[in-house]
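Changelog note: in this version the structure field was regenerated for every chain. One regenerated record is shown below for reference.
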Amino acid sequence: MIHRPLEGIRVVDFGQFVAAPGASQSLVDLGAEVIKVEPPEGDWVRSGTSFGESILRAYNRGKRSIALDLKDSRGLEVAERLVSDADVVIQNMRPGAMEALGLGPDRVRELNPRAIYATVSGFGLHGPSRHRPGLDIAAQAESGLMAITGELGGRPLRVGTTIVDAATAHVLTEAVLAALLERERFGQVAAVEVSLLEVALHLQSADWTGYSITGSTPCRRGNGQPGVAPAADLIETSDGYIVLSGYSAQHWPRLCEVLGRADLATDPRFADNEARVANREKLLSELAVALGGRTSEECVQLLASNGLVVGAVRSYDQVRESDDVIAGEMFTRGEHFDGSAFDVVRVPFRLGGECERTMRRVPSLGEHSAEIVTGIGYSAEELDALLQAGVLSCKESSAVGTPA
């Protein structure tokens, strides 16, 4: 049995890029109907870049697309009818853009008091940067995340994926679900606000709490955890790298014993955590020698079988071939509007022991414009007038979305 707890919930998504569409994708996967409202030229992800195409396929499966000119009063009227029948309205447009179009939260509340209005911004809606455009990288930079990412003494680095955008999509989903539950239980309709900046800060919660307690500013230290050792430390193997942790009073002597170096447990340089942190480089050198000659997989087998935390640093190819990934059915299939299939990471949880494996299709730009408009009461003549005026478009699937 596949669980669809949001069946019957309608979402109108004015979002672009990742954060808002990523949240509405999660809502689709939970059974909601999502209408993706795009400008006549389409969401930026249809621009023809390979990066955009990847975002389009990852975060827009199973939605219906309507291509609508919201700057035209007739297009605005269509949008107003859509939100009048919506449970959730999601948007991450440029700050102030929805209000300028006449679709800000106050107007939507007038049209539909039960609609939950969810806004994603770069820097929040209350500070001096509320009108600044914001993307993942700006949030990584201004939250401190880049300041603590990278090698000791090196330059700041961004996390290797759009981690803040992706996390914001999850946080927005959580907030929308909470707002829906509150509406159903207590009859209260709350607006939802999420910013990339606050999500980026939240991802570093332990670091910020540590900074508050100690007054010591975190800095770039490479892979190792600053206050414990060995912890998240990188060690080279005969064919790659592993990371391992074994810093507790229980695990450190066990690690030494497993490696045949029981003497390290009582070595004054490594006898307690404080000493190991102070002598981390010498510690890692000793561990590398003790693990000498083994492959990454051999290291994983040896250490994990003795209750120690270890992970092989895997390439994307190796991840796809991982027994755990395969057994967990962590990937599923999606369908492009041109009929081709592709791999996509499924939702990262199970309901009732079942994982979601529905093969959802990416819509072409404006693919569902006609059926959506007629579904909200427009006659065939009115539909034709909107199409003739260019307010509404129904583009051929072959004309859009081709990656560079």
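Spot check on this record: Confidence is low (pLDDT under 50) at residues 397-404. Residues 99 and 105 are 8 Å apart (CA to CA).
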